Known about the structure:
The structure holds two protein chains of two kinds.
Chain A: H1 6-12, E1 15-18, E2 24-27, E3 30-33, H2 39-47, E4 58-61, H3 78-94, E5 98-100, H4 110-116, E6 125-128, E7 142-145, H5 148-157, E8 159-162, E9 166-173, H6 182-193, E10 201-206, H7 208-211, H8 215-223, E11 232-234, H9 239-245, H10 254-264, E12 277-282, E13 289-291, E14 299-301, H11 315-328, E15 343-346, H12 354-364, E16 375-378, H13 383-391, H14 394-400, E17 404-405, E18 426-429, E19 444-447, H15 450-459
Parallel strand pairs in A: 3-4, 3-6, 4-5, 6-7, 9-10, 9-12, 10-11, 15-16, 15-18, 16-17, 18-19
Antiparallel strand pairs in A: 1-2, 2-8, 13-14
Helix pairs in contact in A: 2-5, 6-8, 12-15
Chain B: E1 6-13, H1 21-24, H2 44-47, E2 79-81, H3 94-102, E3 106-109, H4 114-121, E4 126-129, H5 132-144, E5 149-153, E6 158-161, E7 167-169, H6 174-182, H7 186-190, H8 194-207
Parallel strand pairs in B: 1-2, 2-3, 3-4
Antiparallel strand pairs in B: 1-5, 5-6, 6-7
Bound molecules: iron/sulfur cluster.
Amino acid sequence: xxxxxxxxxxxxxxxxxxxxxxxxxxxxxxxxxxxxxxxxxxxxxxxxxxxxxxxxxxxxxxxxxxxxxxxxxxxxxxxxxxxxxxxxxxxxxxxxxxxxxxxxxxxxxxxxxxxxxxxxxxxxxxxxxxxxxxxxxxxxxxxxxxxxxxxxxxxxxxxxxxxxxxxxxxxxxxxxxxxxxxxxxxxxxxxxxxxxxxxxxxxxxxxxxxxxxxxxxxxxxxxxxxxxxxxxxxxxxxxxxxxxxxxxxxxxxxxxxxxxxxxxxxxxxxxxxxxxxxxxxxxxxxxxxxxxxxxxxxxxxxxxxxxxxxxxxxxxxxxxxxxxxxxxxxxxxxxxxxxxxxxxxxxxxxxxxxxxxxxxxxxxxxxxxxxxxxxxxxxxxxxxxxxxxxxxxxxxxxxxxxxxxxxxxxxxxxxxxxxxxxxxxxxxxxxxxxxxxxxxxxxxxxxxxxxxxxxxxxxxxxxxxxxxx
Amino acid sequence: xxxxxxxxxxxxxxxxxxxxxxxxxxxxxxxxxxxxxxxxxxxxxxxxxxxxxxxxxxxxxxxxxxxxxxxxxxxxxxxxxxxxxxxxxxxxxxxxxxxxxxxxxxxxxxxxxxxxxxxxxxxxxxxxxxxxxxxxxxxxxxxxxxxxxxxxxxxxxxxxxxxxxxxxxxxxxxxxxxxxxxxxxxxxxxxxxxxxxxxxxxxxxxxxxxxx
Lengths: 469, 212
Ligand code: SF4
């Protein structure tokens, strides 16, 4: 047999049938559901008199719209409440493998709760009506973000219609410097290949620097694959993957564990497998990253200055840069470390896991947030992470430093709830998108790692966390 | 789903690269549990000078006169001309819903984000990929010709000037084309393969029982 990539193997294992033009029905093992992109799908199903194919594939939670404080008061925004209640009703009517509703101990961001409960397993196809489903690829599975019509299609048929993408390898070799994280790798990759660099491709992240990452770090990296335009991001299974899964609630039980592990160990690209496109990055050269514009590719290192559009030759790009600088209220050539911030957000499916919170807490321990920082939020990715962090005393460290310690959810990553930036406010954020208005109309987002966000909160402006004491 | 065969319409040029789905339909409107009614809030942050909220009436809101969709000469446009990586960002299908609800039937761009591209086909909105040079030419012509129209023929896979002076050919998946031309939704078609799906599933249960 020809050597295969990890993507080829995962794809082939799920082909139910294929049309002549390559349109393929892929069997879906895990369907993650949340309140924002599912109501219209359930309604469509009902209107057509169809039943879900296999409800045991469904794991659901409410995350995008839920508040992160005053949980005892419920959801005050009536429109958000209707959406969350609609999910409650749909889950009651249809059933699921697991549903973690608003205020449940295990509730959290959909891309956090899947992996931490062992509902995301190697070799699976995972879909969710959310672009950051790419996160789950960290486990050596094929994970796609899909639209609402596709959510309905998966509910009705347990398959997704897709065409095979090209194979792309991003290999990061060597050791990343101290203070540099998976988030910085992700931003550096996007800075290098652009937000459309992965379009029409599935990216496998490989190389010694990736192998050295924890599962949390791999999830951060795969999470951002979508920001590079890729259809999916993935990392091969290794001991780190297997150790992480052992004992999780939905992981294989003792009688089939060994069988599962034996299969999982085959989930890597064969030596000499063909990639259509290869990008190699030297880990030692990656520095802490800070975005300056309104697209994740508008990124530089903390040592750099805000770029100058006058030096850009391409007209469309130059106009894009000028518009971004204007929106962001920044001047060309100013040092990144001179940028003052108003708010800090530590959270989102990119960086709200226990390792992220530990990294941020290490930076803020015994310090206070700067005078000019109006609000610094820490929003754990799930109830379980919140409990773990509190056990370790991280909540105290944050609160003593002036941070607010909140209930889990998407929160200010997309500001569908009350957590948001006001017009013109500038935020150091550990989330994944710095689009115009993403964190609130007129809000200005700089994407950074948790340690960099924490350091910015203390200093009041961006600082190089490598020099942090 | 509405059929798509031939469409002739006015072109509006949106000269920005990397237009994301947050810009196409801001997140506050995602709280709706419906598929329709998003048109008035399409490009909300660019179209209006104030901030839109779900439930807030859109009549009487101050319009941004500089935004291309608000210019009188583009009123009634049904073909959106865009730059590369159009529709990047979130998977929200509210983006094509909003475009369709506003009255667009066609988007023309040199490239799209994958999820957005798929979502368009599910909603009778045709995303056409043309070469960057062809898109450049369309931008130039749309800028200088008032009332610039195009004729899109899905079956022939062509985009033609109204006076027939230029033709561009585009590619489209055979399956997608078939569904759009006939107004078929995917689910009905896939369910014709029910037996195959069941057989696949049974085998999978034996091979990897821990997945079930
Ligand atoms: S945390 Fe942000 S990116 Fe992640 S699922 Fe929630 S809204 Fe989407």
